[in-house]
Design a protein that fits this description.
The complex is a heterodimer of chains A (about 100) and B (about 700). Chain A is about 70% helix and about 0% strand. Chain A contains three helices and no strands. Chain A starts with 9 loop residues before the first helix and ends in a 13-residue tail after the last helix. Chain B has helices at about 15-40, 45-70, 105-125, 135-155, 155-175, 185-210, 220-225, 240-255, 265, 275-280, 285-295, 300-320, 330-350, 350-385, 400-405, 405-420, 425-445, 450-475, 495-505, 510-520, 540-560, 575-580, 585-625, 635-665, 670-690, and strands at about 15, 80-90, 95-105. In chain B, a hairpin with a 2-residue loop joins strand 2 and strand 3 (about 95-105). The chains are: A mainly alpha (about 100), B mainly alpha (about 700).
């Protein structure tokens, strides 16, 4: 395993961190942040594997799409969070349980 | 052979007299009910109510006697007995009827009973006036009179038995009326228990009659048990008629205080004196002799022989016992037993009429004697209460000279005593002589040992004259022997006490024969001349009887003059004296031979019950349940229940609960957990895929 291979460990780390954030954080913004991290972990994998296996920048193209979609997603998500905050005066996702019961 | 006289057949026709009988019963029952329920509320008026009701009953029964006497003897259609009857109940085809049978025997007895009851009521006005429980007293007197009238009037043995028991029960209550007195409890119980023994005989007799298929009705029974061949109703075997007679006799011995069941009567004196006079004269003890006469047809030869012997023997030993008694009422109590013995003997020897006659005359003079004694005791008691002196007011050894202070009572007493002693011109002379002549005839006709009753009777009549003379002399004559200045304080009895004494004294004169004659001469009630009378030198016999009575009186007077009567202490007591004083140690004998073994046996049974029966139950119980440390079935069962039965259920419940709580968390509505589970699931799937590949 040469040194450039170590960079492959970054994306699992990012993914796990993202999942960890999504599962553990009570703050909706932090959960969103975790989702972003997961997306970016995926992006990183796209780029790394595309570069290493073929040299054809298909992965980079997919990453660009993901970035665009993530941007849209962040916009939507933040808007939701803002509205949630307006309605419930909190962004703690444990407190927002009006669908329960 | 005895002559069956008019008592042996009871012929009845329905008639209105029976309703008058019911009215008499109703008066006393009403008195009992009103006094029993409203007595406290009525207060002073109550006694006049009871008095009035008893007077009414007395008048009604007098009316019945008059009705009875005015029948035309020659008119054969004239009814000799009146009956009111209703069906009471039916069992196994035998219908028991309850009814009133008025005939010569019952109508005269009813008049006697109601009259004496009225006099006792009158006497009690003064005697009982300070008693705190007066309503109860009047109520009990009413019930007592009601039950004895029931015995007198009832037309069948079953109904008689019911009233008979009621008489016993009332006497139990009245003997124990002053229950503060420690002597009254045992005395009343003794009377009750001894009577129970007799009543057992009565019940057995009733059962035997029932087994023989005999209606308990007196009229029917008189036909069914006739030992004559002519009777077609002779359904009972001869041996059974003997047993029936024997057991009925046992019942009568208990009620009329005859040997060997006479021990209750002397103790019964602890009750109020008017009650004693009622008990001794007209109600309790008279019930037995009355029944004996009423159902005379049920007794056959062997039972009659036994009866004659028992009666004579009782008359003798009771007369001997009366000689040495010092209690003013004790002498009279033994005297009653003795006189009842004469009556039972008379029935036994076949002169039933004289038994009945003596029952009536005896009722008058014995009631009078008791009331006179009651007047003395009452006046002494009054003095004693005034003076704070304490001496036994019933001890005749302490009395004397009372005739000066209570001349009226003393005069009446002399009449009663003369009648009891059998002196000429008094009622007792006629009736007792009849009995003695009957006994002598019995001895003549049977011969040999059959002279026994006559000999007993003759000795007893001498002793009777002796003890009653002693009694009278010690109370009313001579110097006073009171411990203190009592005599000057004594006042004569007042009019409510004098009137009964006066009326009874008139009834104790020989004149009563002429009043009774019309009753005895009606068609059903003929006074048949005793057939054997002709063969006896009657005048000579009567002279002998008078001589015997005078001997008794004279002996007593001589002893009294020489100062041998009523000594406080006797230096030497002979065996005869002690036997007499203690009533032949009969009480002690019963105590030792019957009561003690019975109580010992009862103790054994109690111990058996406590240790074996209860013990077994307790052992079982302690095996099942135990409070202390120790093994028991219930503890094991409880442990099993708690740990096994409940345990399993609880364990299952706990498992389900914890599982449920765990599962609940899976669906907590927590989004992040869902994500985690999804992730874990994904990992599991991936792991599986990798492992399987």
């Amino acid at each position: 395993m040469n040194w450039s291979d170590w960079v492959f460990l970054v994306s699992p780390f990012l993914f796990c961190t993202g999942v960890f954030l999504v599962i553990t954080r009570r703050n909706a913004v932090m959960a969103l942040l975790g989702i972003e991290l997961i997306l970016n972990a995926a992006n990183l994998n796209f780029v790394l594997f595309s570069n290493r296996e073929t040299g054809i920048p298909h992965g980079q193209m997919a990453a660009l799409f993901v970035i665009v979609i993530a941007a849209a997603e962040v916009a939507v998500a933040l808007a939701i969070i803002l509205n949630v905050y307006k309605r419930f005066k909190t962004v703690n996702i444990d407190d927002i349980d009006t669908l329960k019961n | 052979m005895r002559n069956w006289d008019w008592f042996t057949e009871v012929v009845v026709y329905p008639g209105p007299q029976g309703y008058l009988g019911i009215a008499v019963l109703g008066c006393f029952l009403l008195s009992f009910l009103i006094q029993g329920s409203l007595g406290e509320w009525l207060r002073g008026a109550g006694k006049y109510l009871s008095l009035g009701l008893s007077l009414t009953a007395s008048i009604i029964s007098m009316l019945m006697v008059v009705n009875f006497c005015t029948w035309d003897v020659t008119d054969t259609s004239s009814p000799p007995g009146h009956l009111v009857q209703v069906q009471w109940f039916a069992v196994k085809g035998l219908s028991i009827k309850a009814g009133i049978l008025v005939n010569g025997v019952s109508v005269a007895m009813l008049a006697l009973v109601t009259f004496i009851t009225f006099l006792v009521h009158l006497f009690s006005l003064e005697y009982m006036k300070n008693d705190p429980r007066l309503p109860r007293y009047w109520a009990l007197l009413g019930l007592f009179a009601f039950s004895i009238c029931g015995v007198v009037l009832a037309d069948n043995l079953f109904l008689i038995f019911v009233f008979w028991e009621l008489v016993g029960f009332c006497s139990y209550l009245l003997i124990g009326f002053w229950f503060e007195d420690p002597a009254s409890g045992p005395a009343s119980q003794k009377a009750f228990i001894v009577n129970r023994i007799g009543d057992l005989g009565f019940i057995i007799a009733l059962m035997l009659m029932f087994a023989g298929g005999v209606d308990f009705g007196l009229a029917e029974a008189s036909l069914a048990v006739r030992p004559m061949a002519e009777s077609t109703f002779n359904t009972i075997e001869e041996i059974n008629t003997i047993w029936i007679g024997f057991f009925l006799l046992l019942g009568i011995l208990g009620k009329s205080a005859q040997f060997p069941l006479q021990i209750w009567l002397p103790d019964a004196m602890v009750g109020p004196t008017p009650v004693s006079s009622l008990l001794h004269a007209a109600t309790m003890v008279a019930a037995g002799v009355y029944l004996l006469i009423r159902i005379g047809f049920l007794f056959t030869e062997p039972v009659l022989d036994l009866m004659a012997w028992i009666g004579g023997f009782t008359a003798l030993i009771a007369a001997i016992s009366a000689l040495t008694q010092n209690d003013i009422k004790g002498v009279l109590a033994y005297s009653t037993i003795s006189q009842l013995g004469f009556m039972v003997m008379a029935v036994g020897v076949g002169s039933t009429f004289y038994a009945y006659f003596h029952l009536i005359t005896h009722a008058f003079f014995k009631c009078g004697l008791f009331l006179a004694a009651g007047a003395v005791v009452h006046q002494l008691h009054t003095v004693q209460n005034g003076q704070e002196q304490h001496f036994n007011v019933k001890d005749i050894r302490l009395m004397g000279g009372l005739a000066k202070k209570m001349p009226f009572t003393a005069g009446a007493y002399l009449v009663f005593a003369g009648a009891l002693a059998g002196l000429p011109l008094f009622s007792g002379f006629i009736s007792k002589d009849g009995i003695l002549i009957g006994a002598i005839e019995y001895g003549l006709s049977e011969g040999g040992v059959a002279w026994g009753p006559a000999v007993f009777g003759l000795i007893a009549s001498v002793l009777t004259a002796f003890y009653i003379t002693r009694h009278g002399l010690l109370i009313f004559f001579g110097k006073q022997r009171f411990p203190g200045p009592v005599l000057p304080e004594i006042r004569p009895a007042n009019w409510t006490m004098r009137i009964p004494l006066l009326l009874l004294a008139i009834g104790s004169l020989g004149l009563i024969k002429y009043f009774l004659k019309p009753v005895f001469n009606t068609s059903s009630f003929q006074l048949l001349p005793h057939p054997a009378h002709g063969s006896l030198p009657e005048t000579a016999l009567m002279a002998t009887f008078v001589a015997l009575a005078v001997t008794g009186v004279g002996a007593a007077y001589w002893m009294w003059r020489s100062g041998n009567l009523g000594k406080q202490e006797r230096t030497s007591e002979g065996i005869l004296f002690r036997l007499s004083k203690n009533h032949f140690y009969l009480d002690q004998a019963y105590e030792r031979r019957i009561s003690k073994p019975l109580i010992y046996f009862a103790g054994l049974l109690a111990r058996f019950d406590k240790h074996i029966v209860d013990g077994a139950v307790n052992r079982v119980a302690s095996t099942v349940v135990r409070k202390d440390e120790g093994w028991s079935l219930s503890k094991a069962s409880a442990w099993f229940d708690v740990n096994i039965v409940d345990g399993i259920v609880n364990r299952i419940a706990a498992v389900v609960l914890s599982f449920g709580q765990r599962v609940r968390k899976l669906q907590g509505g927590n989004l992040q957990r869902y994500i985690l589970y999804a992730l874990l699931g994904l990992l599991l799937l991936l792991g599986a895929l990798i492992y399987l590949a």
